[in-house]
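ingest -> validate -> predict -> emit
validate: passed (alphabet ok, no gaps, 572 aa)
predict: started
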Amino acid sequence: MSVNVWNWKSVLIILTLFGFILLLRNITIEESWKYHTMSPPYKVQNRNQSSNPFKNLPTFPHKRTFCPHLYQPLSPEEELEERNLLDSIAWPRPPSGSEPLNLSQTSDPAHSLFTIVTSQNNHSWYVGDQLEVQIHLHDFKGQPKRYGGDLLLARLHSPKYKAGVAGEVLDHKNGLYSARFPLLWEGSAQVEVMMVHSNEAIAVLQRLREKRPDRVYFSSIFRQGKRSEKMVCNLCLPQDKKRPLCNYTDLHTGDPWYCYKPKMLSCDTRNNHFVESALKNIISNKEALLFQKGVNLKYPIHASTSDTIVVLPSKKENASKIPDPVKLATSGYYYQDIWRPLGGVTKRQFDGLSITQCLANKLVYLYGDSTMRQWFEYLVTVLPGMKEFKQESTIKVGPFMALDSTHNILLKYHFHGPPIVSKANAVAHKLRYIANELDGLTGGPNTVVALSLWAHFSPFPVEVYIHRLRHIRKAVERLLDRAPATVVVVRTPNPRALDQELSLIFSDWFALQLDVVLRAMFKDLNVMLVDAWQMCVAHQQPHNVHPPRVIVKNMVDMMLSLVCRDGTRTDA
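emit:
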């Protein structure tokens, strides 16, 4: 009896070992297949480093912080891309042990100073040179700051010539910063430096973005006959048995959207979409002091001595020098209120007649937020033969359509899918995701597509924005694969006017982070980026979420210069 028991035990042990070995073999095969199917750049990385490119990567602390159950699992390539993107926008926090801070210990622009670095030519500057400015941050007691992480903007401008260029700000992480400007025009030029937020204020914004994405909430009216109910909606909602959800997640892109189910009506009766409100009292009284307009919120830093230089004509040895926009981190500059890009497409000016000539027989699709609606409104007003057709839409959200039947020009504008942080009632069934719209286009040399989406994603974790852009990018790739001659333009985010309330939801810091992500995600595609960030920072007009018409004209002219880069005649 004991022998039989021992034999059975031996058999079980052998079978267990055999099963374990088989399981390991299957896992190995699966892992080998997973990384064998990577795109070429990752294959090279595998050969040079290891069989698993994620093995030694640290777990990113903010990975999938926002409703992780709502999103499909990421592929290995997407996983690595997302980690790299999040790492690229990582921002330095205040030193550990320094919190909680008193206001007196935080960055104060009024006590801070900047100094123009003396040129190498005995205080003379020439076109083609580079100007450097040193910025010293101090706290409210006048003591030098010992760490970086403040958000600064800088520009060099000449009101007389309506000229301006954005500066590249470098953080030395010790309270000292440098701003660099290419010298691109002759005459007097003035340096401006502005502190948008202190490092301490940005730490608050980081926490709100990660922990309180619910600080804005939305609603929809459900209506059937005379009965209607208003329900709370959002990208993510907690649910329980007493509060079931209506799931409006897009079947193709996987972009989530939910509303609480009405008590008496079905989910199919959803009529509209609008932002309800923003939560109040989400920061402490001490934190509120970090967002004081006229004190430490978008406030200028003054020069220690002079803030003005005189730029002389270029030297003979510099006469043929062409500024390198990559090296200078500068995409262009203004002169006589005209944007002059450095590198890329040669920009021209267009008036109504030349726009008509450029867009004749073309379909122009504009997708995105209200900053793209500005392009639609501009084109409708300057094109003499354009007639707008009223549709089932709202004044702000659209959709809109206009037609010049004589020259066969069609303009269409669609807002992006939710979230839409607007009190305007958007017709629910008219809200469509950009990726799906792009997949519906035939494309070709007579098709123009322009995209802009950023502002309405500011309150949410960056993963939400990455997910949306990834599907739009895939749709752009599919469009360019089937119709390579299609013109695609992507507009970047821009700074805006801020007060305390707006800062907590729409801060320039949020916009800048989205700007970095957007540029990286469209970097290798055959699309043109219209650098709205630098075009707004460099201009003399105050920052506005909706830039003034002069800037919008320059943006649209950039797009048209790409559309008509083949030499289409213009009379402007």
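DSSP finds 14 helices and 25 strands in the chain.
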